[in-house]
């Protein structure tokens, strides 16, 4: 075999180990078997719509999991407490939402530690982790292992941040739902509330809880890494 080809294959293998393998490991076990309902998860909050969302979830007796950003939690500590008190799952989503692949190992470790400490100061230990942009890295996998966080990726990305119409959103949610499926919506968009999430609130009451048969147990028994 030519030397050039060997070097090319070696570099390809190395790139897979450094960047590809943690992505594969983080995203495995997408559909949670043995569950009847669809899991609702909300990323990037808390924001000013999160409390309204919690009211709705309470009214329809649904529970969800919130993947929160450290820099938003410091602005809304009461909302964090409410999420916990009302029995929803709490997941870490990093401190700044900077793309993990644009940070060094040490930068990301620092970002995750900073976020984790904010939860700890409030007496709350997050149980789950979801990477910003779904980009799992060695830094995040090692961090999760050390702190006992289960990785929860999604099976359905609804794209609510780019949609303007509630009906399209609802159709997509219904299409992507299924037993053990995990749908991701956003109650925050980097410090701002997602306007569509506000619109989603009445839909959750009228349609979503019936159509999606949202599980009453938030992620219990999930097996992450
Ligand atoms: Zn996010």
UniProtKB/TrEMBL annotation:
It comes from the Bacteria. Keywords: Hydrolase, Membrane, Transmembrane, Transmembrane helix. SUPFAM superfamilies: Glycoside hydrolase/deacetylase (SSF88713). One of its GO terms (biological process) is carbohydrate metabolic process. Signal peptide: none annotated. The chain crosses the membrane at residues 6-26. CDD domains: CE4_NodB_like_3 (cd10959). Residues 36-215 form the NodB homology domain. Pfam families: Polysacc_deac_1 (PF01522). One of its GO terms (molecular function) is hydrolase activity, acting on carbon-nitrogen (but not peptide) bonds. Gene3D superfamilies: Glycoside hydrolase/deacetylase. Its EC number is 3.-.-.-. This is Probable polysaccharide deacetylase pdaA. It comes from Urinicoccus massiliensis. The lineage of its organism: Bacteria, Bacillati, Bacillota, Tissierellia, Tissierellales. The gene is pdaA.
């Amino acid at each position: 075999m030519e030397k050039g080809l060997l070097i090319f294959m070696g570099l390809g293998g190395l790139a897979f180990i450094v960047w590809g393998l943690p992505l594969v490991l983080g995203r495995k076990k997408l559909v949670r078997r043995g569950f009847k309902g669809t899991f609702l998860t909300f990323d990037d909050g808390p924001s000013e719509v999160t409390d309204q969302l919690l009211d709705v979830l309470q009214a329809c007796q649904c529970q969800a999991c919130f993947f929160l950003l450290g820099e938003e939690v410091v602005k809304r500590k009461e909302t964090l407490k409410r999420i916990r008190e009302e029995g929803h799952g709490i997941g870490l989503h990093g401190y700044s939402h900077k793309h993990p692949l644009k940070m060094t190992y040490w930068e990301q470790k620092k970002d995750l530690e900073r976020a984790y400490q904010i939860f700890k100061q409030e007496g709350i230990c997050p149980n789950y982790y979801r990477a910003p942009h779904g980009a799992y890295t060695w830094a995040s996998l090692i961090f999760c292992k050390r702190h006992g966080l289960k990785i929860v990726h999604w099976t359905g990305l609804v794209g609510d941040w780019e949609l303007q119409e509630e009906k399209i959103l609802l159709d997509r949610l219904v299409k992507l739902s299924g037993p053990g499926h995990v749908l991701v919506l956003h109650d925050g968009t980097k410090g701002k509330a997602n306007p569509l999430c506000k619109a989603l609130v009445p839909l959750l009451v009228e349609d979503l809880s019936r159509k999606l048969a949202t599980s009453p147990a938030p992620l219990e028994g999930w097996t992450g890494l």
